[in-house]
Write a structure and sequence with these properties.
Helix content is 36%, strand content 23%. The chain has 275 residues and is α/β, with parallel strands linked by helices. The chain has a ten-stranded mixed β-sheet with strand order 4-2-1-6-7-12-11-8-9-10, with helices on both faces. The chain has a two-stranded parallel sheet with strand order 3-5. Pfam families: Usp.
């Protein structure tokens, strides 16, 4: 599923739970990681010789740790801006996933300040996993990202790839929560969609819990993630812009900003990345 993952790292902090949790991806077929530390071209501290050398040494140390655990590991230290560099490297390697971290309510100052996570999601056609380095206390602990996945779907054609990937993930641990947010006039259609998807899950040995809710999609997703103690919200990277696959829907943006747990953004079109 995720044989090759590009992992965005930065070594301002001595605490690196993002890297410590990479072993969890082995259950989803991880065989190779590319660790990428982008030296920001607009940050003089990043470009100093001392910082480059220290960051390179830490990359090599983590590379050795992961290699000892049985993974193939490459390291990259490009100069530029994080989002385009990560997208370019992932595309060049033919990776199946980009993994990066977010700290609580705000994006990581060291590397992902501003809207880098959202910008990366706009620039890549790969799934993007945004892991909470310090998740909300109401969610599961870090390092259990795939233990309780929740799929939020509107059953549109564009949501098909997210639904398929959620079923793949659910099959690994035997459980999946499926959420559909609608309005009062379309509850019956929503219930039918939930039942169809739950039947697909059952065929694959997945115990599916369905939730039919009304309200603002992003707010409902946050509320249900908290109530269900979901470890991961899986959403489609939707959008109606002129470059459809690079557009990012408003719900996906709000989920990235506000969801208390980790978020997996899945591109709309199947066939662009390898499942």
């Amino acid at each position: 599923m995720f044989e090759h993952t590009v992992v965005a790292v930065h070594f301002e902090s001595t605490q690196q739970p993002l890297l410590r949790s990479l072993g969890e991806l082995s259950r989803l077929g991880a065989e190779q990681f590319t660790l990428v530390d982008v030296l920001r071209i607009d940050d003089p501290d990043d470009l100093s010789d001392a910082h480059r050398a220290e960051a390179r040494l830490r990359l090599q140390q983590k590379q050795a740790d992961l290699q000892e655990a049985g993974f193939r590991v490459d390291i990259q230290q490009p100069v530029g801006f994080p989002a385009p560099e990560l997208a370019k490297i992932a595309r060049g390697y033919g990776a199946q996933l980009i993994l990066l971290g977010s700290r609580g309510e705000g994006l990581l100052r060291e590397f992902y300040h501003g809207s880098t996570v959202l910008e990366l999601a706009r620039q890549t056609t790969l799934p993007v996993l945004m892991e909470r380095i310090y998740p909300d206390q109401e969610t599961v602990d870090y390092g259990e990202v795939f233990s309780h996945p929740l799929l939020a779907t509107d059953f549109s054609r564009k949501a098909g790839a997210a639904q398929d990937l959620a079923l793949d993930i659910g099959e690994k641990n035997g459980a999946l929560t499926i959420l559909h947010v609608t309005d009062e006039d379309h509850r019956s259609e929503g219930q039918e969609g939930l039942e169809r998807l739950a039947a697909r899950a059952k065929e694959r040995g997945i115990e599916a819990t369905t939730r039919l809710e009304t309200g603002s999609p992003s707010r409902v997703i946050r509320r249900v993630v908290e109530k269900e103690r979901a470890s991961l919200a899986i959403v489609g990277k939707r959008g109606e812009g002129p470059s459809r696959e690079l557009a990012l829907g408003s719900t996906a943006q709000q989920v990235c900003r506000n969801c208390p747990g980790s978020v997996l953004l899945v591109p709309n079109e199947q066939g662009i990345w390898i499942r």
